[in-house]
Design a protein that fits this description.
Blueprint lengths: L1 E4 L7 H16 L3 E4 L6 H9 L2 E4 L1 H5 L5 E4 L6 H9 L3 E4 L3 H18 L4 E5 L5 H8 L6 E3 L14 E5 L5 H19 L6 E3 L5 H15 L3 E5 L5 H13 L3 E4 L15 E6 L5 H12 L3
Parallel strand pairs: 1-12, 2-3, 2-4, 4-5, 6-7, 6-8, 8-9, 10-11, 10-12
Helix pairs in contact: 5-6, 8-9
The protein binds FE3-S4 cluster.
């Protein structure tokens, strides 16, 4: 049985940078706090926790003083920086540059559209750290839309600027865009609508969507490796499954089932932008023992 790992799967550059900063920080100290999960992957989290990384939530963060805290790639709202300053917390800021650019853009468009009573719409997952960071840029004055059912929260007679969380699917974004446009046109009764569309899905995610579609077609069976909490993991897994029905989701090698590989000749192993390459290698190695 041939077992191949998708060379392009694994950490995006934003996650690589965050983990690099965490490891460098841990070389200088025994313990380093990280605000939220550094990456939505339990195996990688455990590896870093063994080195001294301590994951904290925002409640605990508020009560810390005179220490160092790592900000992960998802970014944070301005409130976090304010608390850090007040409590003499040194931030190691691993916010991904792509997320920082998006935060700036949300602020800029909010200022611009505010006088016209416009609305900022963010296509994303409510409660997700990146989305919290984006909404925080405009003091909560943004509408989060996870699917078309949420569109009823929008006033279609007013101007709209649409953004996306960086890790959402292109298809989902396009569906939301189309639906908003249709409803605005219906509301106005003509084509004269004030609708700005900012496709802010990260290139690392959108390119991977296209490339995974090609990868999964080449194998009898696909094993997709990801943490269960990873947003882009769920989304990329669904894309693989839509192209190759024999796609299985695992978080680690212990979740593999020998039965899946019976009478199969080729296996492709791939993963999310939050999946470490070493974990895919472990999974691939165990699969090769099944043949
Ligand atoms: Fe940054 Fe894109 Fe990764 S936004 S954290 S490089 S998925």
């Amino acid at each position: 049985m041939i077992v191949e790992i998708d060379e392009k799967s694994g950490f995006c550059f934003g996650v690589v940078n965050a983990i690099d900063l965490a490891e460098k920080g841990l070389e200088k100290t025994d313990n380093l706090y990280c605000l939220g999960d550094i990456v939505h992957n339990n195996e990688e989290m455990s590896r870093l926790e063994e080195k001294g990384l301590i994951t904290i939530n925002h409640e605990k963060f508020k009560n810390l003083k005179n220490t160092k805290v790592l900000i992960r790639a998802h970014g944070e709202p301005p409130e976090t920086y304010k608390i850090a300053e007040e409590n003499n917390i040194e931030l190691i800021d691993a916010s991904c540059p792509v997320v920082l650019k998006l935060q700036n853009s949300v602020r800029k468009y909010h200022q611009e559209i505010y006088s016209r009573e416009g609305q900022i719409i963010i296509y994303g997952k409510k409660g997700h750290a990146e989305v919290n960071g984006l909404v925080g840029q405009v003091d909560g004055d943004a509408i989060i839309v996870s699917d078309t059912e949420d569109l009823d929260k929008i006033d279609f007679s007013k101007p709209i600027v649409l953004f996306s969380q960086t890790t959402k699917s292109l298809e989902g974004f396009e569906e939301i865009r189309r639906e908003i446009e249709n409803r605005m046109k219906l509301n106005k009764g003509d084509n004269d609508i004030d609708f700005t569309v900012k496709n802010t899905i990260c290139g690392a995610v959108s390119n991977r969507q296209k490339q995974l579609r090609d990868f999964v077609k080449k194998y009898d069976i696909i094993v997709f490796v990801s943490g269960v909490k990873s947003s882009n993991g769920k989304m990329l897994y669904n894309i693989c499954k839509s192209e190759n029905e024999s796609t299985y989701f695992v978080s680690n090698k212990n979740e593999l089932n020998k039965e899946w590989f019976k009478n199969r000749e080729s296996v492709g192993v791939c993963g999310a932008t939050s999946t470490p390459f070493w974990l895919m290698e472990e999974v691939a190695e165990k699969i090769s023992f099944f043949s």
